Fold this sequence. Notes:
Elements: H1 6-12, H2 17-24, H3 32-52, H4 55-63, H5 72-81, H6 84-113, H7 124-134, H8 138-150, H9 167-170, H10 179-184, H11 189-203, H12 208-229
Amino acid sequence: xxxxTPRHGLKHxxxxxxxxxxxxxxxxxxxxxxxxxxxxxxxxxxxxxxxQIDFDxxxxxHLMTGLADLAPADQRTIAAMMTPNRILLTSILGGLALLCxxxxxxxxxxxxxxxxxxxxxxxxxxxxxxxxxxxxxxxVASIIxxxxxxxxxxEIDPAALNPTSLNRLVGLASEHVGYALVESMDLLTLxxxxxxxxxxxxxxxxxxxxxxxxxxxPAALLYGLWALLL
Length: 230
């Protein structure tokens, strides 16, 4: 299959990811397309959510619960600072900054580990660009969030912002010791990891075993150690 433009890449990656990754190997500037889609989808869902909810309910139910030990006067001061626009801006800018930083760390990791292939010519920037293509499955989560939010009332659980979390299946309460761990496990991560495996195989001459170790070891270590520390 011939993939000649970023638009072709966005169209065919869902059914023919290896062909798209092969094309990306020699392409320049293509990663702005998935970057833009991911950023717009994330920002749009945040904007929709905070414009739809009853913010007073959200503030009292989800923001103020961790401040119960403070004096009433301090609670009122903090509550007054929690305006809808401020929380929305913090959610969007903070979330995007964290996302970019995470992609940078992943790209650095991939750049270093794929040096095991002496013929690997891809730079940190190449891997950083690839990381945004690997985030395209999050668009599926954005669509689910969109349907969840528009079909709900004004008191929408923040779970709507993370609809593909493993916790949507497990259903742990926020007070549970394992809540943060299970909530952070996104089922779509498996999709992205499968794509990463294919991308490394396409861009390097590393064996399947080495590629698999590079792909899955970080997630296994992260969640394994986290579970042990509970």
